[in-house]
Give the backbone structure.
Amino acid sequence: MLVRRLIPLFAAALTVFGQARTQADLDSFEKVWTTIRDKHWQVKPGGLDWQAIHDEYRPRVEKASSHDEARAVIQEMIGRLKQSHFAIIPAVVYTVLDDEVESGSGTTGIDLRVLGGHAVVTSLDPGSPAAQLGVQPGWQIERASGRDLEAVIDQARANPAVHELQLTRAVLARLSGPIGGKLEAAFLDGTNKTVNLTLDLTAPRGTASAFGNLPEQHVWFESKRTGSIAYVRFNLFLDLPRVMASFQQTVENCKTCDGLIIDLRGNPGGIGGMAMGMAGFLVDKPNQRLGTMYLRDSTLNFVVNPRAKVFTGPVAILVDGCSASTSEIFAGGLKDLGRARVFGTHTAAAALPSAFERLPNGDGFQYAVANYISEGGQPLEGLGVTPDEVVELTRPALLAGHDPVVDAALDWIRRQKKP
């Protein structure tokens, strides 16, 4: 008798759940469609009648029998644009990416990349907690705060829309926490022996800098010499006065250098205008451009203005899948102008102002609001910068104390030296 009474209640609950699911998917459809209508750089996105697209796809979302089916319909609608960086990321994957574990900005001083499906230490901040405890480049990070990092990586890589920059950030987030706190981590060292460490969490490296509506971020710049070849690296195109002054000083001190290496690996971009300013120290011809950005209401030409003192020797730029935005504009533009040779791996293909938002149904939505065409006539968004010489980091090389990308750039510059 009780079972008979429960069946109608169960059926009613399923109906309510189904209605809620359908409404969430419809609300998500409308948000995606409206966002593209209002924020796409073309008044007619992709050259399409966007209202007609709405009228074609909304009934299909209404009739979808499951969330997965509704998502597929929305993704199909986005696909009609035939443009990159418009994607739906399933909730289970987006949750992993959006789980910043932002209980604080404390860091262990470790930078990493996902190599062969594993989180591998690629560099350490000088004097950082991890460096002081003997962590070395090439060590594999197995767990952080009790979380299996390989599981995080597998979840994030389950969706092809997730690129290396997002994946790396998702993994690095597991190595953060409140400043002054501690983090338990397990590593595999160079002999594949498990090393368990308790790492302090300290303030990020660099100087705090803010610009416009961007959140405050720590910016650092480093410069050194390898024989007669100069090397510079900085983590963001921000802190304009200090970074530009440091870059200028490097160039002025490099009059007799055999070459210059600019390491943009891991640099996600920043102020676009800095790409033009820095290029001015490397390009001695007037009226040169790195490329053009197209927005709905304006066009921005990235014009290079040569400085009084220009470095004219060989320039090598290092990039990887975490080089994005202004880094791609700078590297791609100088490559197109024939002014630099690019080494490393394919960049993030995220040169444009783009955003991620959570939809009412829990999925994530990625969209771009501009288009960028390099001076060579190629869009960077979705394609990125392809290095002249593809060189990948490997765990064995890092364990041996080598950076194959830097080594390749050094070899190239040395070959350019006139006898």
Observations:
- The longest strand covers residues 118-124.
- The domain at 14-83 is CATH 3.30.750 (Transcription Regulator spoIIAA).
- The CA atoms of residues 49 and 55 lie 10 Å apart.
